[in-house]
Amino acid sequence: MRTISVVTPPAIEPVTVADARLALGQDAGADAPVLDLRLRAARELAEAFTGRAFITTTFLVTLDSFPGAPIEEWWDGVRDGVPAWRRSSITLPRPPVQSITSIKYTDASGVEQTVDSGTYYLAGDRVMLLPAMSWPSFARTATVEVTFVSGYGDDPEDVPAGVRAGILAHVRDVTEHPNAAVTAERVDNASVTYGTARASGQVVESPGGLRGGAADLLRPYRVLRSGLA
Questions:
Q1: Can you give the pTM of this predicted structure?
Q2: Nearest CA to 59 among 151, 136, 139?
Q3: Are 228 and 2 within 8 A, CB to CB?
Q4: What is the pLDDT of residue 25?
Q5: What is the Cα–Cα distance from 87 to 84, expressed in whole angstroms?
Q6: Of 196, 204, 155, which is closest to residue 178 (Cα–Cα)?
Q7: Angle between helix 32-50 and 161-176 (nearest 10)
Q8: Is residue 97 a contact partner of residue 148, using CB atoms and an 8 Å limit?
Q9: What is the percent of the chain with per-residue pLDDT over 70, rounded to a whole number?
């Protein structure tokens, strides 16, 4: 089991208020705070739907324990099972991962320790052990904390155009149809909102609360995984 929380939120949204005004054909006005709120909400829905971080964000993931796989185990690529390197690696949520800030744990004596950064490296969204290295074997459960930085970059221009278009599509629909019905529930640690879309005069469910065709624009960016390990 794992939990994830935001340590440092993005300093800017992937779509700025100025860009949204231009796309929506709006003049500058007093409703800028409303538009800013809608842009932020759209970005959060889009990140939850895709499983990604867009603008540079620092996250903290708490794990029950370190992954356990003796380094000498092997997998021949034919037998059923999981390769040892995968069982001993940590997959981080919300890619693209930029860097690892620290990996900390509480040892058997209750003292917080930091894993030597020279024992692991980042490969995509996986924290991999270097050859002949292993994770601490005397860590208390539920005390492994990985702090890492994710996102395409610091500026809106770093975010793929399709993602920004998806955010704008949702904001446009919410702006033009503010009273469309929505429901919400909590899933694990996240609040998920389900909105509605209109098709042929009927109301249909909109995936992940995204409206105005945003889900179709964002779907190519979804992170699909068979598991969290």
A1: 0.79
A2: 151
A3: yes
A4: 86
A5: 5
A6: 196
A7: 130
A8: yes
A9: 74
Summarize the confidence of residues 183-201 as an average pLDDT: 48
Answer whether 110's CB lies under 8 Å from 139's CB: no
Residues 6+ apart with CB under 8 A from 33: none
| Residue entry with tokens 């004596």 | 109
CA of residue 31 relative to chain centroid, distance? 29
User: What letter represents residue 81's amino acid?
Assistant: G
Listed in sequence order, the residues at least 6 apart from 9 whose beta carbon sits closer than 8 Å to its beta carbon are 57
Looking at per-residue confidence, does 69 or 37 come out higher?
37
pLDDT at 158: 98
Q: What residues have CB less than 8 Å from 19, skipping those under 6 apart? A: 156, 168
Separation between Cα atoms, residue 229 and residue 227, nearest integer Å: 6
At residue 65's C-alpha, the angle toward residues 62 and 66, to 5°, is 105
User: How far is the C-alpha of 198 from the C-alpha of 74, rounded, in Å?
Assistant: 52
Q: Alpha-carbon dihedral of residues 178, 183, 187, 190, nearest 10 degrees?
A: 30
Residue length, the chain?
229
| CB neighbourhood size of 106 (10 A) | 17
Residue type for position 105: Y
